[in-house]
Design goal:
2 domains; 9 strands
């Protein structure tokens, strides 16, 4: 294991990996522009599994998988919801909106009912409990700016939000489904925890809970903590669900880091069959240009593919705990005393995931990837080459100082090592900032250089 690889598991302990991730951000872009294309449609297959054991009621599991969606509208959340609504082997049977989600109850309901009208599925019940937990956190205001734009382009719905409580609705539809249900949860786990607590029989009606949340072997994304946002907003709720004993498949940042929104995403949307869902996604990209800036990921869409039964991610069985309290509040940690959880740890072929996601929404095969022009190729190779010395320095200082690549990294020796790396990073950013990017990559280039200048200035580097 190199020093670079070992640092990837320690973002929560030190801020240095954030710098290194930024340092290779344009390498992700190089991957995004690689001349590879994949055309695919759904690869999962419907199965029939009728249990006829003596004394056991027969359960027919043929046909679409019933899925309860617990989410709160964001660009990624609505992508996941629409994927499940469009998937031929999924039947969405209810949608619950956590009050702790980014969209809350009112905006969440408006967006959700509009999407259901788009898919002609206004028969699906939608509920939200406005009772905010006393021990949950609020989302930062800057995360909520512009969310009302999610309603743009959606039809006016006829349906209204159910007055049934969320726990009662989840328990009722799961019991009435006639077979075990998948509960897809990609927001703070407030609703799921409440439903499991108030309806102990619910667990017996769940095939599994698919959760987008947590960060197991990589750092979290909440600044200044070791946590991931969905878990950090409602830590007790996350802990309760993980500890509940229901089968859980966790789709943490470990896996979603493999599927950044690629630079060619807008082009792929334009080239796809222009279904209402594809047109709506295209509108969101125009409304939220930061989606394709290199810092967004297919968080909830990847979890949706897992809920749909697509074999697009790799998984491991792990024992997990959610830390409650202290500086590690909300952190997901492997622990021998934890709960057994299936954890998605990667995506072997991101292009297959991208193609599957888009083809389901388009109803036909979609070409993904983009062949880079000669100018783009030359620029991207120059960017990659500019960071070679950074990674050489990283490995060298660890070897020279006799540091264990697996940590811990506390103390003045580590600080000395990182100062050397930052010096090389500053030189690399100087080289990159002097490059003249092609017009197609200028916005990404400018945003990246500006971000890196701020990061390096915070470390007392002169750029």
């Amino acid at each position: 294991m190199s020093a670079r690889d070992s640092l990837s598991g320690h973002l929560g302990e030190h801020n240095t990996y954030k710098i290194l991730v930024l340092g290779v951000a344009l390498s992700f872009l190089a991957y995004a522009c690689a001349p590879t294309t994949v055309e695919t449609t759904s690869t999962s297959e419907a199965t029939s599994n009728v249990t006829t054991t003596t004394g056991v009621v027969a359960v027919d599991t043929s046909g679409p998988t019933p899925v309860i969606v617990d989410y709160s509208p964001t660009v990624s959340d609505v992508g996941g919801l629409m994927y499940l609504l469009a998937h031929p082997r999924v039947d969405v049977i209810a949608i619950s909106l956590p009050v702790t989600g980014e969209a809350g109850c009112d905006l969440g309901a408006e967006v959700t009912l509009g999407i259901l009208a788009m898919f002609d599925r206004e028969d699906i019940p939608v509920a939200c409990d406005p009772n905010f937990p006393a021990d949950a956190r609020e989302w930062p205001p800057e995360f909520l700016a512009g969310h009302e734009s999610l309603t743009a382009g959606l039809p006016e719905p006829d349906a209204v939000v159910s007055d049934e409580s969320v726990p009662d609705m989840i328990a009722r539809v799961a019991a009435e489904a006639g077979r075990p249900v998948v509960l897809y949860a990609v927001a703070p786990l407030t609703n799921v925890a409440r439903a499991l607590q108030s309806h102990p029989d619910l667990a017996g009606n769940l095939e599994r809970v698919v959760i987008m949340g947590g960060a197991v072997d990589v750092g979290g994304n909440v600044e200044g903590t070791n946590a991931e946002w969905n878990f950090w907003i409602d830590v007790p709720g996350a802990a309760d669900v993980i500890e509940s004993g229901v089968p859980v498949t966790l789709v943490p940042l470990d896996a979603t880091n493999f599927v950044p929104v690629p630079a060619w995403y807008s082009t792929a949307l334009e080239g796809a069959e222009q279904t209402e869902a594809i047109v709506y996604l295209g509108g969101l990209v125009q409304t939220f240009p930061s989606v394709t800036s290199g810092f967004y990921y297919f968080w909830d869409e990847l979890a949706a593919s897992v809920a749909a039964g697509e074999s697009l991610s790799t998984t491991e069985e792990r024992t997990i705990i959610v830390v409650e309290g202290g500086s590690d509040d909300g952190r997901t940690v492997s622990d021998d005393g934890g709960s057994l959880v299936t954890v998605a740890i990667g995506v072997d072929d991101p292009d297959s995931f991208y193609a599957n996601f888009l083809s389901i929404l388009a109803g036909s095969a979609v070409e993904v990837g983009s062949s880079a022009t000669a100018d783009e190729e030359a620029y991207l190779k120059a960017v990659e080459a500019s960071f070679d010395d950074v990674f050489v320095a990283l490995d060298t200082v660890f070897d020279d100082l006799g540091l264990d690549p697996e940590g811990p990294y506390d103390g003045p020796v580590f600080s000395e090592a990182i100062d050397v790396v930052f010096t090389e990073m500053a030189l690399s950013v100087e080289v990159v900032s002097a490059l003249e990017p092609p017009a197609s990559l200028k916005e990404v280039h400018d945003n990246y250089v500006a971000e890196m200048v701020v990061v390096l200035q915070n470390h007392d580097q002169v750029v």
